[in-house]
Protein 1
Amino acid sequence: MAKAIFITGGASGIGQAVARFFAARGWFVGLADVNAAGLAATRAMLPDGMATTHVMDVRDRDQWATALAEFTAASGGRLDVLFNNAGIAIGGPLANASGEEIDRIVGINLTGVINGARAAYPHLKATPGSALVNTASAAAIYGSGGLALYAAVKFGVRGLSEALDCEWAADGIRVRVVMPSFIDTPLLDSNVSGTNYTARDAVRAAKLEFTPLDEVAQQIWDGIERDKVHVIIGKTARRLAFAARWMPGGLRKQMRRGRGMG
């Protein structure tokens, strides 16, 4: 029986790229998202008979249980990797954020990841050599002005991953947290709260790089095998990690000036 990966946020972006990468290597793929049309488009990119689709909201625990039960029934009982990847982006100062925006980003980006980890645990434990892979962000390395909400939830995902790496080691479950810098995905098309420009516009204005999706998928594949919790992807993320470790005072000053890592 082929190895099996279940991917949230599978309708586009990193989730779609990872689905294509793993399927090309013979893995059975479960695709989950709220976007049914996007799921169908991703599935059409994969070999026939090698994928299932699940329209679900990661905030709903019952939908998690149903989707994973359906997927493991189709995969022969295997769940080798849960890729907890679904997420949204909200930018702008915290003072400008609405209550609805706060609840939505916390619900999807943090509670959704916790729900996925809890729902997947018995399936991962029953599959030798399995892994939980959570998508965080370079924003989980050091918080940036204008990304307070996004940094908060991504730091939460990082902390959860580090804790589960300890808790689940005895069960033989590897845990990884992916911390990419800027990837050319639909997330960057979201408007910065209180402005008329997008996150993509801000990245371009700062002259920062976009990491290609194929490179992200390759590094996630490689990162599962390496014995490190953190999978840091992209030049900006690597520079940020270096500065946070070796020159935190200088990094703080730079962030306060609003220059980021450009």
Protein 2
Amino acid sequence: MRTTSNPAFRNLPQQGGYADFDRQAGAFGAGAAAADARASQSGFGPAATSDRRLTTDDVVIKTAITGGVALAAGIATALSGAFVLTLPAFIVGFVVSLIVIFKQSTNPALVLIYSAAMGVALGGITGALELSGTQFEGIGFQAVVGTVGVFIGMLIVYKTGAVKVTPRFTKWLIGAMVGVVVLMLVNLVVSFFTTGGLGLRDGSPIAFLFSIVCIGVAAFSLLLDFDQADRAVKAGAPAKFAWYIAFGLMTTLVWLYVEILRLLSYFRN
């Protein structure tokens, strides 16, 4: 049984358990499903939508929608100069993400709110960075292109089987993620008492190396996300589950974008 480094997917029922997820979310039981099937045969009833199983197209479409919302919100924030919304948007996105994760919600409204909020937050950070000096002009566009490029590249790696998502690989990646998070927290705490903390975020050679490691961990985390989505499709998860998968992918993409933006700022600076 594999797990994942993405908190959005970590506690999901594994293997044949996606039907359990559907029941936990309030879906019909076997008896209701049979009734809907009979109703659909006569042209009535909600079976066509409530009992439809997840497909790859569902995942692609929902992920594209959430990504598009985040991108549009980010561009609008950066161009309008509404950087004051950065912190409130980040807080909203963080709170909504906790709700989605702990409730395992497939509510599209919550997922889109998260995407819009994080888009505003990232747009605010990017816009403020570009205005802070001419050396940062166009850095947002480069970060977006880099993020999309990594996403497509890792999708190709997954589909071709160049890197197999095995239990050993999963354990290694989760260990790497835990190590990265611990270092981030320690660096933050130390920075309260010394200038620059451990030097992981000050543009030094160590900071360059740490950012590259973070980008690598985030990129390989996408492989685990793809694997979770693939197994959900094969297990016959409900179609609405595509929103939850899209949310999980968005959380990884947000982290990846931030790390790429940070690394580019080191080069520009």
Protein 3
Amino acid sequence: MRTTSNPAFRNLPSGQGGYATFDRQGGGMMGGGAAYADSRASRAEFGRAGASERPLTVDDVVIKTAITGGVALVAGILTAWSGLFGLALPAIIVGFVVSLIVIFKQSTNPFLVLLYSASMGVALGALTGALEFSGTNFQGIGFQAIVGTAGVFVGMLIVYKTGAVRVTPRFTKWLIGASIGVVLLMLANMVMSFFTIGGLGLRDGSPLAYLFSIVCIGVAAFSLMLDFDMADRAVKEGAPAKFAWYIAFGLMTTLVWLYIEILRLLSYLRQE
């Protein structure tokens, strides 16, 4: 069984047989505790839960993912249209706090998941709106970023379903390593920006910044394949239906990252 670079998809239990293998070795990008599969008590608990709940289906995942994505999209459009760009920072803080609660508590509470989606929708809408109103060169960039994100999502889903690229243990380890490397470079660039103009040059619109954005988009896109694989396994292992909300949250976190990177790359291209 494989792990994933998305922290939201770790330790996901099942109603039949303990789908806790999402954290096979108690590790990953964000760390984690022992797997539920290693705990007889946890297996017994979720076994009893599974007896009273219907198992997860693909339709559950699709519907809940569509709802979370729709909430984020509507919130983003309304924020950009209203011009309330100052909501970006508060929304990011709310989204970050809620994401930590959902991840560490493995919450399937629809309210928390939708609150995260709405918060990030407001944040992305505010950032996109501020960018569009900053000059004529950026008008329409939000629509392009949305189309690009949706295109990558559909494309990677097709790649996954057709088996053109298989999610193997080696592929998973490579992608997790790449994700860790990208995050460390982002942090290093942010720290260096406090001491030098432009930091490491990863976000200043230079050729290196172009390359880094493309790499980030690639890593985020292939991370979707791990997310699809985790969701697919949850369905096959008979996880409780309520975990569709948790899976939708995990997919949403990857889509948020993907949108930000696509928007950033488009902003570089619009500056030409």
